[in-house]
Design brief:
Length: 447
C-alpha cells in the first residue's frame, strides 16, 4: 500500500496497458491496472496520453515477440517527445534468455523490465523506475500473487487463476521457463474470491491455469480439480463456471463427472491435442497417445451430451512428415472439434524442440496450416448449421467488433453469437434464436 502523498502525486496521472498473449496475461494486466488505480492513476484513452505505459508481453511464438519489438521501435519516438513517461516492458517475453540483454543494448529508453511474477512488487518497482536513470530489471520468478488489487475490465465476467506456472515441459513450449513451476492457489482463497464475485453480480467466471487438471497436486491438503469444481458449483448466484486449459493426460473421469453433474459448469472443454501422430506426440512430451485421446473424447461425449470440445494444434513440429500430418488430418476429421486453433510451430530458444533436427521448411508448414484450416472450417460450419432454429442462452458481452449495430455473446458451449440488442441488456442473459450459421460464429435474434 502506498502512502497518501504518493497517491496525491499521481492524481490526474494516467496509465495505458497493452496486452499480448493468453488469458493469464489479460488477468495480470487487470492486476497491474488495479495497482495503478490504487496509486491514484486513471485509465488513458491511448498510449500517447499515458504517464505510465505498460506493454504486457507474450513469448509463446516468435510472432508475438516480433510484434512487441516493432512496437518498441515506435515507442522510442514517443519517449523522446514525452521523456517523463514511464515505459514498462512486462511479462513472459522479458523472462526469456537473451531478451533482457537485448533491451539493455538496443532499447535503453525503457524504464522498467519485469517478468510476470513480480506482480506483487509492482508499486515499488514503479517508484524505483520513476526515480532511476537506468532501466530497472526484475526477473525473479518467485513472487506473491494473493490479495493483490485488481481492476476488472468487465463487471459480469471475470478471470480467476487457480494455478500459476507449468511443470509439463512440452518440448516445444517456453511457458514453464518464463512462468516458473506450477503452483496451485489455496482452495479457500479461490472459493472466497469466486464467492465475492458471485455476490457482487458477476455471471460468469473462467478458472485459469496452464493445466487446470493438475490442480492441487502440489498442495498439502487433499484436493483435486474435480473437488474444486464441485465446491464452486455449489455457490449461489453464479450461473456460469468455465475453465481452461485442460491437459488430456490429467483429465480424470471424476472431472468429467463433475462437469456432467454440475449445474453451473459450462459444457465446454478446451482440450489441446497438438498432433494426431503418436510419434510426434511422444517427441512433444505430451504424455498421451491418439487412442487415449479418442477414448477421452468418447467418454466426454457420452457423459456430457451436447458438450462442445475445442482444441489447439501445432503443425510443422520438427520431424513431422506427410504421414504424421495425415494422422492429424484424419483425427480432426474423426473427432470433429467445435473449434480448433491451428498454429505453425515456432522454435523457442532454450526448449528441446528448438534443438531437434529436421525442422520443417516454412513453405511446408504454411501449406499444412491451410489444409487443416480448410478441413476444420468445413466441420465447424456443418456443426453450426445443426444449431439453426434453436434457442440459445446467451450472456450479452458487448458490441460486435465488426458490426456496430450488433451485440456479441456466447452460448454455454462457448460459441460466439451476434444479434441486435440494446445497451441495457449488457451483462444479462438473453434467449437468442439462431438464424444463420457461419464458420466462426452464429447470427440470431432475441427470442
Ligand atoms: N497450457 C496450455 C496452452 C499453452 S500455450 C496447454 O498446454 O494447452 C497455447 C497453445 O500455443 C498451445 O496449446 C500450443 O498449441 C501453442 N504453442 C505453444 N508453444 C508453441 C510453439 N513453440 N509454436 C507454436 N505453437 C505453440
Ligand atoms: Fe506449455 Fe505444455 Fe505447459 Fe501447456 S502444458 S503451458 S503447452 S508446457
Ligand atoms: Fe500466456 Fe504467452 Fe505467457 S501464452 S503464459 S502470455 S508466453
Amino acid at each position: 500500500m502506498q502512502n497518501s502523498s504518493a497517491k496525491e502525486q499521481s492524481r490526474d496521472k494516467k496509465y495505458f496497458i497493452a496486452t499480448y498473449g493468453c488469458q493469464m496475461n489479460v488477468y495480470d494486466s487487470e492486476v497491474l491496472a488495479g495497482h495503478l488505480e490504487e496509486l491514484g492513476y486513471s485509465a488513458a484513452k491511448n498510449e500517447e496520453e499515458a504517464d505510465v505505459l505498460i506493454i504486457n508481453t507474450c513469448a509463446v511464438r516468435k510472432k508475438a515477440e516480433e510484434k512487441v519489438f516493432s512496437r518498441l521501435g515506435m515507442l522510442r519516438e514517443l519517449k523522446r517527445k514525452k521523456p517523463d513517461m514511464i515505459i514498462a516492458l512486462w511479462g513472459c517475453m522479458v523472462q526469456q534468455e537473451g531478451v533482457a540483454r537485448k533491451i539493455k543494448e538496443r532499447f535503453n529508453f525503457i524504464d522498467l523490465v519485469s517478468g510476470p511474477n513480480a506482480l506483487g512488487r509492482f508499486p515499488e518497482l514503479l517508484e524505483t523506475a520513476g526515480s532511476s536513470e537506468q532501466t530497472v530489471f526484475d526477473l525473479n520468478l518467485s513472487g506473491e500473487r494473493e490479495f493483490l488489487p485488481i481492476k476488472r475490465a468487465k463487471n459480469f465476467k471475470a478471470w480467476v487463476p487457480i494455478s500459476h506456472g507449468c511443470n509439463n515441459f512440452c518440448s516445444y513450449c517456453i511457458v514453464p521457463y518464463v512462468r516458473g513451476p506450477e503452483k496451485s492457489r489455496l482452495p479457500e482463497n479461490v472459493i472466497a474470491e469466486v464467492k465475492e464475485l458471485a455476490q457482487s453480480g458477476f455471471k460468469e467466471i473462467t478458472l485459469l491455469g496452464q493445466n487446470v487438471n493438475s490442480y492441487g497436486k502440489d498442495l498439502q491438503q487433499k484436493i483435486d480439480f474435480a473437488d474444486l469444481l464441485c465446491k464452486l458449483d455449489q455457490l449461489d448466484n453464479l450461473p456460469r463456471i468455465r475453465f481452461m486449459t485442460s491437459h488430456p493426460r490429467d483429465f480424470s473421469e471424476k472431472t468429467v463427472r463433475a462437469i456432467a453433474e454440475g449445474k453451473n459448469i459450462c459444457e465446454h472443454i478446451h482440450l489441446p491435442l497438438q498432433s494426431g501422430s503418436d510419434r510426434i506426440l511422444e517427441k512433444m512430451n505430451r504424455g498421451y497417445t491418439r487412442s487415449y485421446y479418442l477414448e477421452l473424447i468418447d467418454m466426454i461425449r457420452k457423459m456430457i451430451p451436447g458438450s462442445s470440445i475445442t482444441t489447439d494444434i501445432i503443425v510443422g513440429f520438427p520431424g513431422e512428415d506427410e504421414e504424421d500430418f495425415a494422422m492429424t488430418m484424419e483425427l480432426m476429421d474423426k473427432v470433429r472439434f467445435d473449434a480448433a486453433y491451428i498454429f505453425v510451430y515456432s522454435p523457442r530458444r532454450g526448449t528441446k524442440a528448438a534443438e531437434m533436427k529436421n525442422q520443417v521448411p516454412a513453405g511446408v508448414k504454411r501449406e499444412r496450416v491451410i489444409q487443416l484450416n480448410k478441413l476444420q472450417s468445413g466441420i465447424v460450419l456443418e456443426k453450426n448449421r445443426l444449431l439453426l432454429g434453436s434457442i440459445q442462452e446467451i450472456l450479452v458481452e458487448g458490441k460486435s467488433k465488426t458490426d456496430k449495430n450488433m451485440f456479441t455473446g456466447r452460448t454455454r458451449t462457448n460459441k460466439i453469437v451476434h444479434f441486435p440488442c440494446s445497451d441495457n441488456l449488457l451483462g444479462k442473459f438473453v434467449n437468442v434464436k439462431i438464424e444463420e450459421a457461419r464458420a466462426w460464429n452464429l447470427i440470431g435474434i432475441i427470442n
